[in-house]
Every structure is written in structure tokens, then in C-alpha cells.
Amino acid sequence: RKEVEQDPGPFNVPEGATVAFNCTYSNSASQSFFWYRQDCRKEPKLLMSVYSSGNEDGRFTAQLNRASQYISLLIRDSKLSDSATYLCVAGDSGGYQKVTFGTGTKLQVIP
Amino acid sequence: NAGVTQTPKFQVLKTGQSMTLQCAQDMNHEYMSWYRQDPGMGLRLIHYSVGAGITDQGEVPNGYNVSRSTTEDFPLRLLSAAPSQTSVYFCASSLQGARGYTFGSGTRLTVV
Question: Which one, of A32, A42, A31, A46, lies nearest residue A87 by Cα?
Fold first, then answer.
């Protein structure tokens, strides 16, 4: 079983739609969580951290459910520019704070 | 700031050749890591460093060496290239791991 699992998609959604991705992690000791965005043939870029109380950044909302060990990302009012692969990341509590990346969920926003 | 700079962007090697992938960051980050990304496998950690002079192995270290003589630089050496090392390599750095990583633009390596 992978440490961080994501539905690879693709999720094809029309412009303006709301779309949600879930990600599950297997290490109950994981302490920090992130969502990264990766455009085709580009490097991953940090989209947002995920806090226990949930957090919002514009059209993006991230939630953490420790009991069920999953993280979610909600994108409202999807834009064409949101088309990318979204990587879920879980980090441990060690001194180095090693992180494990999911394989990503591909989103395609359609005009 | 330049952020994380990786060179070269593309490289083709013959089996058995060695080479060094360069990575430099100008953000005074303590943590630096090397990842490889393969289709369907996600990003896998090769080696990492928590500061100058300190390195450790990640998930897939075989066939690779690293050193960290300065805070800024973290080169990755391929000792004897194999076709299985064909991949996209990313260097990343972080002030503290919990704050998330900044990635370089990647090196696309093909071993023939």
C-alpha cells in the first residue's frame, strides 16, 4: 500500500465548476500536510499547507481529517488555468521532516 | 532571488558513464533534497541533507552519491549510469521541512 494515495483522474470539469480531490495517508504519525500543483513538464509548486482546522486561500479550500487519515482540496469556480496535476504530501514528525508525495490527481478544466 | 537552480536541464548519457547534476539555492535553506519522478511512481526521495556536512539516504539511493560542503550547493552524482536511471530529477530546498519545499526546474536525464 502506498503511503500517500490519490485518484490519478483525470478529472474533466467545465469552467466554473467546483471540484474536490481526496488523498489518504497511511502513516498515522504524519504531522504536516500540503498540496502542490505541477504543470506538465514543470516542477511542483507549493499550493497551500493544510492545517488541522482547515484553511482557505481564495478559491481553494483544504481540509484535514486525522481520524480517517485523509486530506481534501476543494477548488471553486474552476478556471482554465487550474488545469494541472495536484500532488498531496504528508510529512512526518522527525527532525528532517521527511515528506512523502502522492502520485497526483490530474485536473483538466474544459471551456 | 533565483531560488533553486538546477543544471543541466537535459542530458543524455551512455550506460556506464558518470555525471554530476548540480543544484544551488540562494535562500539560505537548511534542508535540501533530491527526488526522481517517474510516470506512475510519483516523486521518490533519493538523498537529503539537513545542513552542510550532513547527508542521508532516502527511498531510492542506490547508484547515487551526494555531498553538502556548503549551505548553497547539493550536487547529485551518478556513479555508473544505467537505463533504469532515466528519469526527471528535481532538487528541492526548505528552510524547515514543515514549511514546504521549493523545487528547481528539473533535469531530464536519458540513459541509453
Answer: A46
Contact at 8 Å (CB) between B100 and A34? Answer: yes
By Cβ distance, the residue of B41, B45, B104 closest to A98 is B45
Q: Is B51 in the A-facing interface, judged by CB distances under 8 Å?
A: no
Q: Report how far residue B26's alpha carbon sits from residue B31's, in angstroms, rounded to the nearest whole number.
A: 12
Q: Which of A23, A96, A100 to mutate to test the interface with B (most CBs of B within 10 A)?
A: A96
The model's confidence at residue B72, banded by pLDDT at 50, 70 and 90, is: very high
Question: Whole-angstrom Cα distance, residue B40 to residue A6?
Answer: 11
| Residues B89, B70: Cα–Cα separation, whole Å | 21
Q: What is the pLDDT of residue B98?
A: 60
- Going by pLDDT thresholds of 50, 70 and 90, the confidence category of residue A97 is low
CA angle B12, B89, B51 (to 5 degrees): 130
